[in-house]
Design a protein that fits this description.
Shape: globular
Mean pLDDT: 84
Order of helices and strands: EEEHEEEHEHEHHEHHHHHHHHHH
Helix content: 40-55%
Structural class: alpha/beta
Radius of gyration: 24 Å
Number of helices: 15
Low-confidence stretches: 1-19, 22-39, 396-403
Number of strands: 9
Distance between the termini: 36 Å
Largest sheet: 7 strands, mixed
């Protein structure tokens, strides 16, 4: 176990040396630190772009055991498409940071297969989008579905009651006393060759994760550590699974004034938009502007100007007005579906606002007693579930749902025990 870093001094990380892969053995590619050793201060960066070095990395990943760690991150492009385009895969084992370029590595999927099947614990930082990228890559490679043992370091920070969604810069500076350079955050990851600054940025995104884990672990305690592992697995599972139309529908805002018929129309439009986005590999918000969906469900316009008045962007309307108007024509013929649930917003605003606020205050007290961040128990989805179950006179919350994760169990058990 590492000794927590001294946060009285703040260092700026050194610019590391790195090697561009030429297919030759890298003399600096040393054996990684053992399970109990602290990583070095400066990463050794390896660009993997040849079959030989890809094979070496795949073998190293295959040789890891359950006591080892692999830090994981991706750089990807998804501004216009439904499926993410992986631009770079980053892995860190001890001080060695491996940058795997899917465009330039002939044996990319060999590395990917070994990584997905690793026995090591995989450390991520806010891994929701990275899980989706990994699932997409695995599907393209024809790999059987398998989920590595993920552990989210950002979530670990929240279980220390330090903040629900801090950035990596803040956590590294607070916990390790190191200031990171994030000047490449908005850079173009589709360009080739990648710049030296981009490569260093990508490496540091994974380099500190094991050290952060080892620094924060002694502060967590056994109970919160168990919660962290359970919640990390739950979030990874949710990130890997492609969202259903119902998942998308439940998260909509501005639905409190919609009738059951209009909600039925909204759900139909969500189904059509999602199916079209998948089949045409286009971002859903580029098919129909998300904020316009409840207005379309309520008004069901017949002509192009009506789409614009409901908030559909000019770009969406120009590209997809024929499909949208066709879907609206079908939506007007629907009958209200009484089985369709209300959205999460319905149970946290309007007539339920007071009850939701009281439950939120109870959950905040439970979080304080548990020593974890409030937001872990009071997200809109969890709060809506608890209000709904309270209205129906069923369980206090989704704590009995094994798929709901540790946060739901903590809050549900606390409410059932009468805490707060």
């Amino acid at each position: 176990m590492c000794t927590p870093a001294d946060t009285d001094t703040t260092d700026r990380h050194e610019v590391p040396a790195y090697t561009r892969d030429t297919g030759q053995q890298d003399a600096r590619q040393d054996t990684p630190a053992g399970p109990g050793a602290a990583p070095e201060d400066t990463p050794r960066i390896h660009l993997i772009a040849s079959p030989a070095t890809a094979k070496e990395l795949a073998e190293r990943l295959a040789g890891l055991n359950s006591e080892d760690f692999v830090a994981f991150d991706t750089e990807f492009i998804r501004s216009t498409t439904y499926t993410p385009r992986t631009a770079l895969l980053q892995l860190a084992i001890g001080p060695d940071c491996y940058l795997i370029d899917p465009y330039e590595t002939p044996s990319y999927y060999q590395v990917l297969t070994s990584f997905i099947n690793t026995r090591a614990t995989v450390l991520v930082f806010s891994g929701k989008e990275d899980y989706a990228v990994l699932a997409q890559e695995a599907m393209l490679a024809g790999l059987p579905p398998r989920q590595p043992r993920f552990l989210d370091v950002q979530l670990m920070y929240a279980f220390m009651r330090k903040g629900s969604s801090p950035g990596l810069i803040r956590v590294v500076e607070e916990q390790l006393g190191i200031t990171m350079d994030k000047s490449e955050t908005l850079s173009d990851w589709s360009q080739r060759p990648l710049s030296d600054a981009q490569l260093q940025y990508a490496a540091y995104d994974v380099f500190y994760l094991e050290r952060l884990y080892r620094t924060m672990l002694p502060k967590l305690g056994a109970r919160r550590c168990a919660w962290l592992k359970e919640e990390s697995i739950s979030l990874a599972r949710a990130g890997i699974e492609d969202p259903t139309a119902l998942d998308c529908y439940m998260g909509f805002s501005h639905t409190g004034v919609l009738s059951q018929l209009e909600l039925t129309r909204l759900y139909f439009l969500v189904e059509q938009r999602l199916a079209y986005a998948r089949s045409h590999d286009e971002a859903v918000n580029r098919v129909i502007t998300t904020s316009a969906m409840p207005h379309l469900a309520a008004e069901c316009p017949y002509i192009f100007p009506g789409l614009i008045s409901c908030g559909v962007s000019w770009g969406c309307a120009r590209a997809h007005s024929r499909e949208i108007l066709k879907w609206l024509s079908k939506a007007r013929k629907l009958k209200a579906d009484p089985r369709l649930p209300h959205t999460y917003e319905f149970y946290t605003k309007g007539a339920h606002r007071e009850k939701a606020q009281l439950l939120k205050e109870q959950l905040e007290k439970i979080a304080l007693e548990a020593g974890i961040e409030d937001q872990l128990l009071t997200s809109r989805q969890l709060l809506a579930d608890w209000v709904k179950r309270d209205e129906e006179g069923t369980a206090a919350g989704p704590g009995t749902d094994k798929k709901a994760g540790a946060s739901a169990a903590i809050g549900g058990n606390g409410l059932a025990d009468g805490n707060g």
